[in-house]
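Researcher: Before we compare anything, I want clean individual predictions. No alignment, no superposition, just each chain on its own. First chain goes here; please echo the sequence and then give the structure tokens.
Model: Echoing the first chain and its structure:
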Amino acid sequence: MDQSVVRALSAGVNQSGVRNHNERLLLTILQRHGPLPGTDLARIAGLSPQTVSVILRKLENDGLLERGSPVRGKVGKPSVPMGLAADGVMSLGLKIGRRSADLLLIDFHGTIRQQLQITYAYPLPRTVFMFLADGIAKFRAKMRPELFDRLCGIGVAAPFEIWHWAELVGAPAEEFQRWSNIDIAAEVASCTDLPVSLVNDATAGCWAEHVYGRGKEFRDYAYFFVGAFVGGGIVLNNSVYEGQQGNAGALGSLRSIGPQGESLQLIDTASIHLLETMLTKEGRPVADLWVQPQDWTAFTALVDAWIAQTALELAKASLSTCAVIDFEAIVIDGAFPADVRTKLVAQIRMEVDRQDTRGLKVPRIEEGTVGENARAIGAASGPIFQHFLLNTNTGHQRRTTDLAAQFAGVFASLPSQMTPDQAAQQGTKHHTADRSGAKTDRVARRGHDIQQGFPNRGSKCVRDDDAAVEPVRRDPLREPPARDDRDPDNRAPKD
């Protein structure tokens, strides 16, 4: 990707006690920009070269970074770019869809290493969780033991309150209602000892686009994913915003108007299930729409008619979202072939130009790039972010804010003659003494023993609300200021 279009992240912090944040910041910059030498990392992050050098050595020793080929300049020693080690982190992603389920394994680069898929008329709990258990066993049989030990978790992408969609997916209401009594995270935890995170399926697609697609280009944007039903996600200030209940960006629930003037939702007027209905009326098979690789050329006439209707609805929905938040872009992706996506986006742009846009700044309408696997990839990226990367709207950042508030009380009780550095050091001691026992108990209670940033193979899984447990080694409150004992003067080597 052209680096000129990648938006910059916030700067790092050079003070002691924030090593965890700075490690995550450097990893996130490398994820967004690709391999960079230490000097460039220091400039982008706003950190001193010495701080960056120490952190890079530690991350390399942990197996999270790898050295690239030296780049020789006109003068001086060649610079050595550092990049994410593909084998450094592994993660699983499960997507529970209305017509299919996907399980995949991704590495630290977001590359899919293994993938399995099943299709069905409608999803039932037993079918989905048997597929998951069998899939994990198959993945493990094909993985080297050292890579399996690098698994940091499993993310699950599922529709919000899936049991409400029985009529639309054609499932028996009583049988489909079983989902309402199932704790999805708990069921997944029974299949694996990995930490579990749960996210709305459309938001997961937004995560994938944000991390691995064109989301890097925009600061604030809305994301529409057109699957069996349409959904979406929201990015604010370079961060995916999930909301208090994890259902932010429920764009499929935007209001629409039916052909008879009736009040409908966007899912009723701009989803692939409408194309299914059109195909069924003509006696055409619909199963091909959900089997990879997708090829819709056999349905061109019906697809073109569906695109025309869907584009109009998405154009109106796009402008409606911009009436609430001044998005600079609307990103469109979905479970369809790339050529269909291109046609759909072109048609949406035309429909936007035809709408009344008074009082609005018309956003850019852009294609997504991740495609059909976006929801599963986004689900798999969740554990990686929780443990290694930065997103200002995740629980990690909220916890940081909470800890700062606690420190404020500690500082207020310290002698006034203390210097700020002395107070910070004393505050760290007090906080550790007061909370270490509680944290140890909490970690033991949840069975989440993490070493070197990875869950212990014998531990039980945590739920999505337990994901706040951080690896002890990476807790900035338990670490002294960054320093490399191999370099007594703490001087940074030249690139």
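Researcher: Okay. Second chain, same rules.
Model: Second chain and its structure:
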Amino acid sequence: MSGFPENFLWGGATAASQVEGAFREGGKGLDTSDCRSGNFGVPTVDKIKWKYRLMTTSRFQKALSEEGLGEYPFRWGSDQYHHYREDIALLAEMGLKIYRMSISWARIFPTGEEETPNEEGLQYYRNVFAECRKYGIRVYCTILHYSVPVNLVQKYGGWWNRKFVDCYVRYAKTLLENFHDDVEIWLPFNEINATMFHPYNGCCLILPDECAQWKNPFEKSMDKIYQAAHNQFVANALTVKAAHEIDPGIRVSAMIAWFCPYPSSCNPVETLMAIRQQQEECWFFTDVLSRGYYPRYMENRFRQMNIHIHMEEGDLELLRENTVDMISFSYYFSSVATVNPDWPKTDGNLKRANVNPYLHRSEWGWQIDPMGLRVTLNWMYDRYQKPIFVAENGLGAKDVVEKDGSIHDPYRIDYFRQHIKAMEAAIADGVDLIGYTWWGIFDLVSCGTVEMTKRYGMIYVDCDDEGKGTFRRIKKDSFYWYQKVIASNGEDLE
């Protein structure tokens, strides 16, 4: 008998910038993801280095000057803009209960400042939602999944400018007003703590060219980063307020990227280090969004760093009165806290991590830790006592198409199996876990390394790092395996 509740939401997740493509079709404006280079010819092992992951002034200007596809993989993605009917039919065949997707801000408001939305953009998403509804697939919709109209960046800098809040809220209200009947769960910001680790994605921070040589490229920008975080908190609260005014039954979620830090030993100092890491990198964001106030540990941290956040009158009341209904998070890897400065490091989602010698790692260095998911779920639920949703979890790997067209990915199935068992155990622990969306259900352009080679999907997309291919969809072995898992509500994992 399955340990999952009868109404558990088995699903898959994507982001508009990584799958849609069609970056100049349907009235869409240029956005910040469209400006991230694929670094063609650079070995994968180097793509994770600061040098290639930062957005610098010259790199940004070069992207703006290139009108075509160039070396910018997000501009073509997985071409879902032209394949959405086929894609949603495949999700229905798989048996998906819920599809986590995002909407492109620049497809609705091409410059971010229009008074009225782009009707072609609205119609595209009406069509997508209609297809989901046809097959009985619920929708979990992310309002902002990193990608911001470049016009806003050019005029106002980034999220530290309060003008961003006004533009975002106009956009968010437009979505809520048009699609509140189509969406099960709304998420204002994907991985809202990303602003700490990937500030270009998180808050549109563009750095001087020489920053790639700095030990900490963001050190001189912490005022901007924390101010951007505050403005996003305000925008999130205003979105919750608008959503509940439109329909009190709407559920709005917070979401963070979680890294599950352990102390590397029983040294009490390392235990405290792990707690501090959790507080500053993760808890801070969900504490504000779910509890409605700035925690004292961060107020102390701001004083130590001499950081002064500008708040407008009514901000704190707004945060207090408009908290989220549930908590979501992404989980890909865990790390360790250590006093040893020479401890070996490896790559991970958004940030590098200290190596845990008890864990295996993926081809891209991400530490595979199913038990860490169970630990995280217990921490999350214990802290907030609100429904929990695992919004992202997955394995990036190289897949091979066999001569007969089949794709065997036992490594993905095994990864998935172990993490499902961890979720089931967490439910038995008492966690109110309501859903899980595998990242990304289709192959898509990797957000971290900007390449297709790092494949996450259970559905293969015939496209290489340079956009060459037929974009044909092919079911992997994991497709049929997940189909069986969903049909059995998590009972059949063989």
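Researcher: What stands out in the second chain?
Model: The longest strand covers residues 251-258. Additionally, The chain has one domain: 9-487.
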